[in-house]
Amino acid sequence: MYDAVVAGHLCIDIMPEIDAQTARSSTFLAPGRLTEVSGVVFSTGGAVSNTGQALYKLGINVRLAARVGDDALGNLIRETLGRTNPAFSAMPGVGCGEPSSFTLVIAPPGIDRTFLHCPGTNNTFGAEDIDEALLGEVRLFHFGYPPLLRRMYADDGLELTAIFKRAKAQGATTSLDMSLPDISKPSGQANWPLILKRALPYVDLFMPSIEELLLMLRRQRYMELIETVGAGGMLQALSTAEIVGLAEEAMALGAKIVVVKLGNRGVYIRTNGRLADLGRGDPADLANWRSRELWAPCFKVHVVSTAGSGDATIAGFLAGMLKGQTLEAAANSAVGVGACNVEAMDTTSGIRSWDETQARIRAGWAKLEVTTPGEGWVWDPAASLWHSPRDKKGD
Hints:
Elements: E1 4-8, E2 11-17, H1 20-24, E3 39-45, H2 47-57, E4 62-65, E5 67-69, H3 72-84, E6 93-95, E7 102-106, E8 114-118, H4 132-135, E9 140-144, H5 150-153, H6 158-169, E10 173-177, H7 186-189, H8 192-199, E11 205-206, H9 210-217, H10 219-228, H11 230-237, H12 240-252, E12 257-261, E13 267-271, H13 286-289, E14 293-296, H14 309-322, H15 327-341, H16 354-362, E15 378-380, E16 385-387
Parallel strand pairs: 1-4, 1-9, 2-7, 5-6, 9-10, 10-11, 11-12
Antiparallel strand pairs: 2-3, 7-8, 12-13, 13-14, 14-16, 15-16
Helix pairs in contact: 2-14, 9-10, 9-12, 10-11, 14-15, 15-16
């Protein structure tokens, strides 16, 4: 019935429209000051909405698994999802008497976004919200944002692990995306190394941002960078060696394919040789995907908002895999869909169809200028990405 199930976090995003002049003002968001904005955009947010709707727009038949409240925001979430696909409006489960989740997104032009988030029904989402029968039919099971779902990090991730273990036992290819927890809250204090140690043996594709991976596996280094360069400078401060090392740690914990989102630096992809048991969603050419190490820079676009860009990047990569692309092509599909996403204010309206996106890539879409990731890395002009010295190139 479905190619994929996308489960996990779902909310409504409330995004004030902030122009560049306002964002540059010395009084922007200053205490006690009123800041005028030109309007507001309402959009469903979270992995279920962002990745799920992006996959649908890319031609993947998707089932959503999430939880909303029986309140006005819950109705707005359902209505908004239904504008993309009428069937989506009936898919989320309902928590009676529970508040729906919302996020206030502050996304000034040219500045990384900031979120104010209410978890709502995401705190009660659990295994019972995922139809087990579907797991025996779908090719891909994708789960997003466990740090924003309380039951997923409680008890050192026992429920998260059980969900992935069940999906893997049913023969689905499994995929996990993360989110950056609030380090002052219980989600940020959770034992993430242990949670990942338990869950990743049942995860085929692990797709975190570099900031998320750093916080979860090397917390001391994360806190050091927060103190020295701040959250905004962290991405550029990390060396290639650190990025590669973090991906290797994730693979050592059990993930078979690691896709690290690097913001305007693109995506880093590492795969191992154990891909025979990926499940029903495995790539058409497994040999091409084994023992690879690639770095795909971003495409050049005018950035309106980065909200949802990571989820869109994931959708592009997963769609490429499900549609039988080579790893090189899937990498470019990832950064291509992510680039389309940032051309719009909200999290989904910038996504184009699969054919439109691929035509744009084939037409010679320019990449951002980037220096070599490190010594020995080789630029592939045909694929428009970097190969590491260790990349097997499908041999």
